[in-house]
Please model this.
Amino acid sequence: MPKLIKGVGCPYCGSSCDDIEVLVSDDETKILEVHNACIIGTNLFHHANDATRPKLPRMRQPDGSMKEIPYDEAIDWMAKTMLKAKKPLIYGFGSTNCEGMSAVGRIAEKSGAVLDNCATICHGPSFLAIFDNGYPSCTLGEAKNRADVVVFWGCNPMHAHPRHTSRYSIFPRGYFTQKGQMQRTVLCIDPRETDTAKLADHHLMLDQGHDYELFDAFRTVLRGFEIPETVAGIPREKIKESVEIMKKAKFCMIFFGMGCTHTDGRNHNIDHAISLTRDLNNHTKCSIMAMRGHYNIAGPGQVWSWQFGFPYCIDLSKGSHAHMNPGETSSVDLAMRDEVDCFVNVGTDAGAHFPIQAVQHLKKHPFITIDPNFCMASEIADLHIPVRIAGVDEPGVVYRMDNVPIQFRAVIKGLPGVPSDEELFDRVYERMCELTNTQPIWLAAKEHRKYPHNPVVS
Amino acid sequence: MATVTLKPTKVPELMFEGYSITPDAFAGKTPAQIADLPGHEGKIVMKLGDFFEVTGNAGDTAADTNIVINGDCTRVKYIGARMTAGSVTVNGNTDMYLGGWMKGGKIHVKGNVDSFCGIQMQGGELVVDGDAKNHVGCAYRGDWRGMKGGTIRIKGSAGNDIGTFMLGGTIIIEKDAFIHVSTHAEGGTVIIKGDVEGRVGGQMVKGDMYVLGKIKFMMPGYQKVGTVEKEVDGTKATFDHYIGDLGERHPKSKGEIIYANLYLKAAA
Ligand code: SF4
Model:
């Protein structure tokens, strides 16, 4: 009898929907049906059925081909390569659980690496703005229950976060928003006519790259001063009308995305948006939230801030303290400036997402990819180590885009012999300790570990 | 005054963190001791002697120690960082954090510098004959107390983020600048002799800016209040006087609201 598993989390986008139902085969090895998820989420689950999923690490051979090798050999090679490198870079973690992110910290410290996550090419600038100006945010539940004015600035949830609008932001009926969409006014600020813009009541089609000026105009109007006739291509009257809508809201919610974080000015755009949120709170309630891309990309920010004091771009090469300064310690800059001599790509695809020049620089040195599937980064790697898929055949904690932790569950049994990210990193750490004649330091007993070692807990 | 001369002998494979290249670290040391000073290349602790040939003598104190680097330091970070006195002259380019956190003394680079030069500077003089990349005299990430004093002069052009969170001191860019000048500043003076793309004085609370060229995109939060004659770094001209950023909070002094000032050279 196939089993229906309820309350499953979807390990794809930052909406981290936790209302998915999955029908699995009797022996818990096949996913038969996926309910409630959007098309992306549905496909992600079905993808786990793929019979061609890699089950063993593959090492690049002198003739350029890839050869399957046992896990122990791959772990040994990875440990030795990272210890030998002067400055390895560990990047990724868009799509894995917090347990893996926490375990990788030990390897990073041991090998004096730079630890970075996908925020470096997406919401990293938001972190910098938050450092500079604070983060007056809330949870998605509050947005759903209270927000009657919703602003989408430089983001397109209709495509990037398909169920965001139906679960949290536009359509749902909440405690104070019983009429759902009827009760909400939606503003979209985007240089393109996206599907979110089409859905909005007001679309401010600004000139590309002038978000900062437009935020400034909003704030200037809010303080009662006059602004030029047009700002960033938007007429003065339209700006005044929008400010009035936001001011008159019972609860205004600003969502921002890559259109702000990765156009000129980057962190300053968000910084200004945060200032606008603060100013609006003199008139009404207003909150702001980053549209984080992946289901657990808020995770490394949480885990590493707790471990190292910084959310991303963490340079641990000194061994005594963590140093963080994006522009210097950010992955793409490190690659472009030839500042690293070993690259580890975990649960993301740097091969597809990085500028080609950055990948060319990284390829001069050992390139390791840890990913459940084949991807561009696995195909150009010197070593590809497959792991289980977090949220499908491996449970774990994830942080949703509003930094709410959710326990995701496994719906099927993992491929035999394939470790989770956490197990793999723990084994690499133990191998590094063996190679350097040091005692591994575990802060907590890992009772659930599935491989046969008995660690000493200090 | 005693002079120590460094001659680069090897290009670091990664970047070399030359945080020991300051008059303060060199003072009272022999060339052999100087060559033995540490610097990181990745996680490996190297020695200055691995990358430089050291000759000459250091003075007893930082104030009477001059450092001359004869050659290219494109891959050397932190030259003159945290120095308090003395001088550093680089006959070539340098990498990031040139004169970062410096408190006194003088740095003169004859070539170009990378980003973060004069970050969190408190005093002294920093002169670059060539161009500077981004974040000239800016604050460290998350610190709302940026540059407090001293002078930075870039004879070429500069990138974005000039004087972010600045509290005092002077930055002069003799050619063009890209975007974000004096963002969030609460003091200090920035002079740009060339053109600026935009975002001049965004979220600025207090302080002065002079632009002798053109601003392509003005911040909407600035309003013209008059025209003034001023002499700026040796140039006398008529300036349009703007105040702002009207979108930002501003303190009151003697009952009057204090705004930041932007002096834009009036069209002839
Ligand atoms: S909206 Fe995102 S989290 Fe929700 S089902 Fe679709 S892909 Fe998964």
